[in-house]
Amino acid sequence: MKTIKTIATSAFAAVLLSGCGGSSIVSTPVENIDSSPLKVSELTEAEAHNWGHLDLVKDTIPGMSVDRAYTELIKNKKGKKVIVAVIDSGIDIDHEDLNENLWTNEDEIPGNGIDDDKNGYVDDIHGWNFLGKGYDEQLEFVRILVKGDKNDPDYARAEAEYDKEYETWVNRKKQYDQFYQVITNTNNTLKAHFGKDDYTKEEVKNLVTDDETLLQAKQMAMGMYGNGLESIHVAEKEIKNAIESINERLNYNLNKDFKGRVNGDDPEDFSTKYYGDANVKPVKKSESHGTHVAGIIAAVRNNGKGANGVANNVEIMSVRVVPNGDEYDKDVALSIRYAVDNDAKVINGSFGKSFSPHADIVREAIAYAAKNDVIFVHAAGNDSKDVDTEPNFPDDNVNGKEISDTYIRVGALAPSYGSKMVAGFSNYGKQNVDVFAPGASIYSTTPENEYDTKGGTSMAAPAVAGVAALVRSYYPNLSAAEVKQVILDSGLAINRKVIVGGNTADVRPFADLSKSGKMVNAYNALIMAAKLSAAK
């Protein structure tokens, strides 16, 4: 569930456009939560890199009190190893901050080309890759149109979605190409004048000239600086990356003629399931989503390297399923079953789509996970929509009835307590979103021993998966269903009104955006789990 940085919505882009034409256990008394002070100062670098682990009361940041939980509750306790399956794009299993927390299939002999454990997947040492060498794929509604079955109940909706999306992205490409040309010209003019690439804001501000081209470049740069931009170079890089993403959307995701499936399997033939290969790593560096998600859950804590995962005592199982485009229902269903059959106790699914032709087989897999005592954590989606009225898959609903008591759907919080605490991109739903957790501006691992900040409900889901793994590690006698209920009941109930979907005209009580009306809190979850465990 990847997002593209929509620079068109930022302040400096506007300048370019004008220039171009339920529980009583809480970490603070309940009556004081809503009077917690609003943080008005900028986050320090340390806070920005770790905000999801901070404490609302202590730090005035809507984190999950993870660091407090380690310091006060589990510092001297020994937990049990928990396998967490990350169903996503590839994971860089060689990453310095992840490689010691990988799941290894002890029943397989690496590289011998034999299915030693006879599970049907040859040499699946750290997981399985259902995509093979593939990565780029169409969106699901494009596949529906390519099939051309006008009797398909989704066909008309798919056609309308395609027309809207194609026009949006064609227009966005024109806009961003224009942005890029202007900012590149501005940057090149200023670099030539100063004779260096790393000119500063102060140098531009103090520039005095009668040269019309140079004066125009100064005015453009100062306009961008005035709207919060610190570096023209950063803006140029971001726009270039955005254009690459837009081109991918048009050339692959929305291209009716593109053929993406390269693993030799027919996604409509459900009689086959042993396809793909054991290489769970990304096919290219930009395939970073799965690595980032894995780090949120399981980056080695306090090792002096880039990020801290939420959970210790975890082993990450990599299941490569999510392409640059929409995942196939068949791959998702098989990946859930693979994770369950190989002893995962928590599954994270940071992916989703609005069309799912075979939603029934995915729901059957979700029910299979529940039956086998496995938690499935799913990202709510990044469309600023109400998923009670607009579909988002995979879900656990059949005619309004939940088929799993271990499925958790997660919306995203931003690092700003108060009216702006719900991330503008986050989906929501009083019936079909369970909780909210930190998801905007999350710092985590990326391929080749690097780190980056990304945002999305894709980042909120693994935060909750990490809390689920913590609870299952320290209180293994609790069932998956009990752990889900602990997470929902132990969250902080916020009575504030918040901006919904990034629309300042849409302000509602935070409690109306999810079933629990709460934000996840690891500290409270562990306290509640301890009491429930002791009572069993």
TrEMBL record:
Protein family (similarity comment): Belongs to the peptidase S8 family.
Catalytic center residues: 88 (charge relay system), 289 (charge relay system), 458 (charge relay system)
Name of the protein this chain belongs to: Peptidase S8
Chain ranges passing through the membrane: none
Highest taxon in the source lineage: Bacteria
Listed GO MF terms: serine-type endopeptidase activity
InterPro entries: Pept_S8_subtilisin_bacteroid, Peptidase_S8/S53_dom, Peptidase_S8/S53_dom_sf, Peptidase_S8/S53_subtilisin, Peptidase_S8_Asp-AS, Peptidase_S8_His-AS, Peptidase_S8_Ser-AS, Peptidase_S8_subtilisin-rel
PROSITE patterns reported in the protein's UniProt record: PROKAR_LIPOPROTEIN, SUBTILASE, SUBTILASE_ASP, SUBTILASE_HIS, SUBTILASE_SER
Domain Peptidase S8/S53: 79-490
Signal peptide range: none
Keywords: Hydrolase, Protease, Serine protease
GO BP of this protein: proteolysis
